[in-house]
Amino acid sequence: MCGIVGVASNAPVNQLIYDALLLLQHRGQDAAGIVTQLDRKFFMHKAKGMVRDVFRTRNMRALPGNNGLGQVRYPTAGNAFSEEEAQPFYVNAPFGLVLVHNGNLTNAHALKAELFSEDHRHINTESDSEVLLNVLAHEIDKATRGLPLKPDDVFESVRRVHRRIQGSYAVISMIAGHGLLAFRDPFGIRPLCIGRGADGTYMVASESVALDGTGHVFERDIAPGEAVFIDLAGKAHFMQCADAPQLKPCIFEYVYLARPDSTMDGISVYQARLNLGETLAKRVVSMVPPTDIDVIIPIPESSRPSATQLAHLLGVPYREGFVKNRYVGRTFIMPGQGVRKKSVRQKLNVIASEFKGRNVLLVDDSIVRGTTSKEIVQMARDAGARKVYLASAAPPVRFPNVYGIDMPTPEELVAHNRTIDEVRDLIGCDALIYQDVDAMKQAVRAAMASDAPALDGFDASCFDGVYVTGDVSAGDIVRLNEKRVGTEEGAEDNSRLALPNPSE
Ligand SMILES: O=P(O)(O)OC[C@H]1O[C@H](OP(=O)(O)OP(=O)(O)O)[C@H](O)[C@@H]1O
Ligand SMILES: NC(=O)CC[C@H](N)C(=O)O
Ligand SMILES: [Mg+2]
């Protein structure tokens, strides 16, 4: 999960892209970057850090032009510490290309070797997004039949890219002197939508909140496998470029990743979370009598809608027992277990009066490594709670995610190879209530608008172990993890800024 945005306008876009990135900050906190285009020349600034820290006035002034892209990064491949892996990525041929990517390629390793031996291309980082850019560059070069490049040639190159790459990808790219290209993987695993401003400006972004918050009107989601090319005259061309597209978006977007005020593929994230609270209520009453619960307390931030609905249905008071320090970012997307653990205590503090002598039901949207729940349950006990129950609006996370969420190894997942009772003992709560996998799918599906695109299912691989691209082997998972640098879960050797090894 990263946040990406692309804008094609008749007016300067630097501030607009900055504003959109701020609205997507929850999708990536590690690095940020913007590239703009003026007269066939790209202007780029990218660095590690949050949007506000990366862009100073002088950087913004140096981003002229009416077209541009931006990204906030949450590393899921390559090197979490490397500034060079911040996006956008640039390659000079053909034409000059820049690219931003949200997702994760599962065959990046094989592609990298192929790019070297067959396409004679050089990849200078461990990032799968640099691999993706070079595959796109190669295929645009092959598909170009005369100048200027035509939309049909661009779409042909996307068709070829779909055939070569596997995994999840929402992509926005600019082709110097030609236009802006965006496309989504054939399963629509990662989100991407398009909207317009009153002046005709096109904006493509990961979440509808980026459009709403910058005064653009949401038009629609880009369909799985579909590409849009906005030429320099501002005309948008659309084409389905995948052989057998299916809509199976990542269900974790609705559970945790996305902002609740976004709508993705016709499903309101907020409504999905309310529904998850409703189905969770049924599980709770089957395990703990509501009369035994004095108060329901959400674990801020993402669990709030589910917790309110749960409290409402159980008829138990809802209280804010934890206060969040708004200057500490999201814990889960921080790189490394040490920093995540420390951040839970920095980020959340108790209001002791809500706990003292009470039986509390804490509600979280999900339990992944258990970092948050373990700390929070202890904090509740320290504050004097009599009994501490914990409910999760998502089912146990038991399988690694290979599509752009940072949970690459099963061993780090608290529910992997453990029974619910074992997880409960590890977390230290008196009862642990998880959502059921089918109930989760139904709850999210029930939040679909009547005019939503037809849904073929969900990627729920971290809950059910079914990988929608059907191509993930244990070897892929090991390789993805080996390529991680700069996190405690990945390799420790942070100096391993790879120069490509021709024998690989
Ligand atoms: O079991 P864990 O490995 O701790 O991961 C799960 C926790 O991480 C997320 O919170 P986070 O602080 O990232 O974001 P939020 O403020 O949006 O809830 C999520 O909402 C859970 O609280
Ligand atoms: N979370 C993402 O979408 C990550 C994009 C890309 N795989 C990276 O690691 O930079
Ligand atoms: Mg949380």
TrEMBL record:
GO terms classed as biological process: 'de novo' IMP biosynthetic process; purine nucleobase biosynthetic process
InterPro entries, alphabetized: GATase_2_dom (IPR017932), Ntn_hydrolases_N (IPR029055), PRTase-like (IPR029057), PRTase_dom (IPR000836), PurF (IPR005854), PurF_N (IPR035584)
Positions annotated as active site in the UniProt record: C2
MF terms (GO), sorted A to Z: amidophosphoribosyltransferase activity; magnesium ion binding
Cofactor requirement: Mg(2+)
EC number: 2.4.2.14
Protein function: Catalyzes the formation of phosphoribosylamine from phosphoribosylpyrophosphate (PRPP) and glutamine.
Family: In the C-terminal section; belongs to the purine/pyrimidine phosphoribosyltransferase family.
Name of protein: Amidophosphoribosyltransferase
Gene coding for it: purF
